[in-house]
Specification:
With 821 residues, this protein is mostly helical. 65% of the residues lie in helices and 5% in strands. Strand 2 and strand 3 form a beta hairpin. The longest helix has 42 residues.
Length: 821
């Protein structure tokens, strides 16, 4: 390690649910997702921090239980540690599950990298009556051990302080490892490891010399190159004559060389598929076979024998360092009592679905208040813009701001309170430890459709967004189960679909039915996913289902800070879309819905007809525009005005007013109403003609003959085209199509228009298609990354076809039975 090193790389490694990401967030100031189940961290993420006059790059690795099994996240964590060789490992250990965590600790120490242990969740361990002798544990393992409580920050700052001391010490002692000499297994195991090491050293030396020393290193086998690279990097360049062949001999005592050689020997004995192919020497293979035959007496593989040796070491460490206070286990007993109900096959499922229903109910009821505030803000913004362009209402600048930005981006912005409440409620369930119980409860159901309860975690994430849901399938080791989970993940109602539900459901269903309908939409997605998974498991992927192995974490009390951060972080992902994706798509859709404009002679014809109506109204002594504005007020005001007019008429009759005059006034009022209706009809016809003449209108009309089978018209078709990029755009496009300036999912004007123009049956068919069909482009790209472009397109087209077929079936079946719903 060079004394002039500028940035130290520190890897945070540990089991799932050990609090690793919480420590990462605390140290770096990040706000990464933290969950009370495995699979939240699905890829390596780094963050920079400066402390103790040094710069650190902290790398948060995926949570893994072992470095010898090969789910995608475990491979990613292991590859980083083995190939990148960070300067230091911070092994985060859950103190409340000490023995289970220590298995990974031993594997990390086998790597021979400088290591410190952050014994996290110490408060929870004490509450459960667990006491750990920190000093003795440090002595036995030969590495520093620090007590931390990630949720409160207790002891977290000491992690970097201790890291700095270890790194400084290593620089001053020529890269001596701080772990190797302390990690020893039984005498027989150590003897065979040493035997393989000796042959390994000889083979590597001979190959190195045969290829001309350092200058021919690139021609050596992959195993030799890996063995030497780290050792060479750790030495100062001036220490050797790099063109000579004595480099290998000089590096034999190098700490990194020793660490890599020992680790390689262990992996060769385990017949590790990622290491063994890199060594093809026959004498080395014979040495490994001889050592294996001397150690293994039964049919169990050598890997199982070494795993048993590690577990024995874990038990010895636990017995030497842990003491339990039986009088302080009441909290654990209460947790067990709660689980007897919450994980019950019947009552547990009933409680789980009731909890999810409560989440949706809260989203509607509590979210209604902030949504109304945002509506008022949108109304004010649209009104202000209309006033600024009062003299030129046909201005393109006014149209792009009011129709494109306010009517497009604003259509989705009002959705933020609902998504915040939805994610806050889900975060409470996650942080409390209840979601892991949900995976356990659903395992029996999942197994019947070809999945396991481990698929529940990615599918649950899918209710927020399909992209991280698909990425989180990396926690699934079984290829069959992972493929099926990826295929059905888009069927979970992601947050992007939520604005569509919030627009359509209140428009066509009364208040008492809104929460149940939303709940049924979510359940329908789950049912369709189950059917597809069953078909896949019985056709493409047959075979036994891997059993579910999942940890049920202890119950936690969610903190307000954590819930707020998680909810806002997820909501912020949508807010960022408004300034980028949604804004760009809204402006594009506005342009497609505006250009090309109608020929001037057609526009002049409509203007002339409307001017004639305004002239006739002025002859009656009334300004038609002012009259129409007054009639567009709320229903309550209109009713009150009508009532007042009736009272005035009665008073006039009682006072002896001329009946002829009253009849004339009534005739004028009736004519003004007719003029208003004709003027509005011309305006709507004008806008319809303009939209039909535009690019979006022409595209919509080209699809109309097909989508009419599902009860949709060309307007809905244009909205669905925009939703291909992002589902939220459907709401924005419908606002643009109907030129509703304050169009949003709670906009009464747009909802009234939709309920007037379409039936409830059309609403149902549209909801089904938006649930099942046409996953967004981000989902398509993510599936291609995780599987292949071939499977990404197969998934997209098959789900789109299925969604449309079901929508057509629902609509045609409803028509046949004369169901208007």
């Amino acid at each position: 390690m060079s004394a002039t090193k500028q940035v130290y790389r520190i890897a945070l490694a540990g089991n799932p649910n050990c609090g690793k990401t919480t420590l990462f967030n605390y140290l770096t100031g990040e706000k990464r997702a933290v969950g009370n189940y495995s699979g939240v961290t699905v890829e390596t993420v780094s963050g920079r921090v400066r402390a103790n006059d040094a710069d650190y790059e902290l790398v948060d690795l995926p949570g893994v239980y072992s470095l010898t099994t090969f789910s995608k996240d475990e491979i990613e964590a292991r590859d980083y540690l083995v190939e990148e060789r960070p300067d230091l490992i911070v092994n985060v250990v859950d103190a409340s599950n000490f023995e289970r965590n220590l298995f990974l600790t031993l594997q990390l120490l086998e790597l021979g990298l400088p290591t410190i242990i952050a014994l996290n969740m110490c408060d929870l361990a004490r509450n459960r009556g667990i006491s750990i002798d920190i000093s003795k544990l440090s002595d036995l393992l030969g590495v520093p051990v620090i007590e931390t409580v990630g949720s409160t920050g207790q002891g977290v700052s000491s992690v970097l302080d201790q890291s700095r001391r270890v790194l400084t010490s290593l620089e001053s002692t020529s890269s001596k490892s701080n772990a190797l000499s302390h990690l020893q297994y039984s005498a027989s195991i150590e003897q065979e490891i040493a035997s393989v090491e000796a042959v390994l050293s000889r083979v590597a030396s001979e190959e190195y010399v045969a290829h001309g020393g350092f200058s021919g290193l690139s021609e050596c086998s992959a195993g030799v190159r890996w063995l030497l690279t780290g050792a060479i990097r750790s030495e100062r360049v001036e220490s050797f004559n790099w063109d000579g062949q004595d480099v290998y001999s000089a590096l034999k005592s190098n700490a990194r060389m020793q660490a890599r050689r020992r680790w390689t020997a262990i992996k060769l004995l385990e017949d590790d598929p990622h290491v063994t192919p890199n060594w093809s020497d026959e004498s080395l293979s014979n040495a490994v076979s001889s050592s294996t035959s001397r150690l293994v007496t039964g049919s169990a593989p050598m890997a199982a024998l070494l795993a048993a040796e590690r577990y024995k070491k874990v038990r010895d460490l636990s017995a030497a360092t842990i003491s339990n206070d039986v009088h302080r286990r009441r909290g654990l007993e209460l947790s067990d009592s709660a689980d007897r109900v919450l994980t019950h096959p019947f009552w547990g499922l009933l409680i789980f679905f009731a909890a999810m229903y409560l989440v949706f109910w809260l989203t509607f009821t509590v979210g209604a208040y902030p949504v109304s505030w945002l509506e008022s803000l949108q109304d004010y913004a649209a009104e202000l813009c209309n006033r600024l362009w009062a003299d030129n209402p046909e201005s393109l600048a006014r149209s792009i701001i009011v129709d494109g930005i306010i009517g497009g981006v604003g259509a989705v912005l009002v959705f933020f309170p609902n998504i915040f409440i939805l994610f806050a409620a889900i975060t409470i369930l996650e942080e409390s430890g209840y979601m892991a119980r949900g995976a356990f409860l659903t395992d029996r159901f999942m197994s019947r459709v070809g999945l396991t309860g481990k698929s529940f975690i990615p599918l649950l994430v899918g209710f927020g967004c399909s992209v991280p849901a698909i990425m989180s399938t990396r926690i699934i080791e079984d290829r069959k189960t992972r493929f099926q989970t990826i295929f059905i993940a888009p069927l979970m109602s992601c947050g992007a679909r939520y604005p569509i539900y919030m627009l359509l459901i209140p428009a066509f269903f009364p208040q008492r039915w809104q929460a149940p309908v939303l709940w049924l939409i979510y359940v329908l997605g789950i049912v369709v996913a189950a059917v597809i998974s069953t078909v896949l498991s019985k056709t493409m992927y047959r075979g036994e289902i891997s059993p579910l192995l999942i940890e049920l974490p202890p119950y936690h009390r969610p903190t307000l800070r954590t819930v707020g951060y998680r909810a806002f972080e997820r909501g912020w992902q949508y807010l960022r879309k408004f300034a980028t994706t949604i804004l760009a798509i809204s402006l594009l859709l506005w342009a497609l819905s505006t250009f090309p404009r109608l020929p001037q002679d057609v526009v002049a014809s409509y203007d002339a007809q409307q001017s004639a109506l305004e002239t006739e109204a002025s002859e009656l002594g009334v300004d038609l525009q002012e009259y129409m504005e007054s009639t567009q007020e709320s229903q309550e005001k209109a009713t009150a005005t009508e009532f007042a007019s009736e009272e005035q008429s009665l008073e006039a009759m009682e006072s002896g007013a001329d009946e002829t005059q009253l009849e004339e006034d009534a005739a004028v009022a009736e004519r003004l109403s007719e003029l208003s209706e004709e003027w509005t009809k011309l305006a709507v016809e004008h806008e319809d003609k303009a939209l039909e003449h535009s690019i979006a209108g022409r595209i919509g009309h080209s699809f109309a003959p097909v989508i009419r089978l599902a009860g949709w018209d060309w307007r809905i078709g244009t909205g669905l085209i925009g939703a291909l990029a992002a589902k939220e755009v459907f709401v924005a496009q419908m606002g643009i199509v109907y030129r509703v300036a304050n169009a949003d999912e709670e906009s009464e004007s747009l909802q009234e228009i939709l309920s007037r123009d379409y039936s409830r049956l059309v609403c149902v068919s549209l909801l089904v298609f938006c649930l099942i069909g046409a996953p967004c482009m981000a989902t398509l790209v993510t599936v291609a990354k995780e599987l292949s472009w071939r499977w990404a397109f197969i998934q997209w087209f098959s789900l789109t076809a299925l969604g449309f077929i079901l929508s057509v079936a629902i609509y045609q079946f409803g028509l046949a039975l004369h169901l208007g719903l």
